[in-house]
Here is the input.
Amino acid sequence: MQVPTLYLFLLITVPTLGGLLCMTRRRGTSPWVLVAGTSMITVVLALGLLLYMATKGLESIAVNADELFPMEWAIIALDLMLMAYFVYVGVRDKSRWIVAFSFLQIVPMVIFQSMVMGKTADPVIFADYLSVVMMLITSLVGSVIILYAVRYMKGDGNQPRFFAVMLIFVGAMNGAVFSNDLLWLFFFWEVTTLTSFLLIGHNKTDEAKRSARIAAEITLGGGVLLLASIILSYYYFNTLTISALPSGTSIVGLQLLPFALMAVAAFTKSAQVPFQRWLLGAMVAPTPVSALLHSATMVNLGVYFLLRLSPNLVGQDIISWIVGIIGATSFLATSLLAIAQSNSKRVLAYSTIGNLGLIIVCVGLNTPLSITAGIIILIFHAISKAILFMSVGVVKEETGSEDLDVMAYLRDRMPFITVSIFVGVFMLMLPPFGLFAGKWIVSEAAAGFPFISILLGVGFAGTIVYYGKWLGRLFETGPRVSRLPALSQKLPVLYKYTIGALLGAGIVLSLAIGQVITYLIDPYLSLHYAPAVSGSSLGLNTEFGSFPAFYFLLIIGVLFLGFGFLLKLDKKELTQAYAGGEDPVFDLGGFYYLDEKVEGHWNKIILALASVLLAVLLLMPVALEVFS
Here is the structure.
């Protein structure tokens, strides 16, 4: 086995084997040595692959089936076992949808596999710089989250199973990212469905079980669509590989249907409207699971797949526009709904759906500028969302709540976590951080599409409102309140190091955004597009202007130091409100405008609108076939 093949193979198998070994540990014990060792090896392998490709000048790595162990039968057998398990789960949990979707995968898959048995689908594994970017997110951010979880899950009675599933999740994600054979992709795709189902239901409460079931129903439905698209791709294009799919205007009429089905399957994975329900319910899982789902694994797989397919859809304007409008609708709707949330994890969940919608807008616009923006958003969203979830997890551990209202006084009580929340939020919406640069570029890319620009503009405003409200809460105190001392218990070292590592990575990568574009994004773009964004030592440049990240950081740093000096508060009583001589009792709290009932009504409206858009997307190939 050659060196690059070995890297790809190990990045899939090492986390998986580490997870399987965790399952051999007795219930009630902590497999932290095994978890830490596996995570560190995964990090070394991920960086090693990047370094190898950079130093060897490789644009991509292709691996044929005969370079690996015989895998065809193993993939088929594991696929069937996976679906058989979901049939069992569906019967056990009395879910007709899980049973139905499992059979809708098993029966066509067995028939289709018997038809294509022995057909060559080389290269079965393929890695270019888009794959490397996604692999780095999964392996580096995912490993940091798993290390954080070692401390967070301390005291949990079922740690071996928890960490086994977390590690297998990372291995399956790398497998999906590297798969060029569509049947391999389908297998790893459904392994992520299984692992997310197990992790969401980890606490085994009624709410956790219900949320896990809903997640399985929606994502298994997406799997059915993905399998249908694979079968149709083989029918229309006689290929089982992603790299051999046709592109551009050579795809006509009903031949667009496999791509439309793939897009809808990706929407289910990335929780886009109308499929967002499963991700909101998944907030019941332990915080490390939320961090892993939102930043390093599950939801990123859908948008990664769409970015992978975007070169194939160049010139397919109608399909691309519908995809872009669905993404913009997700971004706008969730940005507005997040304003009404008082639970910080639900705010982050809506924010994730919105930012992934933004990446889908980039795919829909499908220009070099927008695809660059999509990859930038993918990178920085992963880092910032991991920071925020991990910080919220620490707050919950200390205060027992994830509610925004309990975060008043947090500046004094948990200064490190306050800073991490600030930096995490700033990474999502303010310069000089990378996500702001991505939003700036996508705004330029959408300038020629007024309808999408309006949706994005309102969505950006909503983002500022709900994150601004959160940051304001961190500084808030009531009247006649003296500054509180820091919590007596020191922040655990593992929390400080893992969150600190992501903070450092986010700041450094934001400053080096020019190098990120030059060495990570442009090598992929140059294979399919003419790069439209150039990196420099100070930032990045487009034909519309420059983004001087270094100078932005300098200005922000001066402003922070200045405000910190001017607004330095007394250690004594902070405020005393005038109340006409009375002595009222103040009760600090937010007003969130929507209760669950009203939010449910809005979700129904969004569901109806998004369902219409999905129907248009799936029927458009038929219409093009009829009227062409």
About this structure: The CA atoms of residues 480 and 576 lie 5 Å apart. The chain has a mean pLDDT of 88. Residues 206-237 form the longest helix (32 residues).
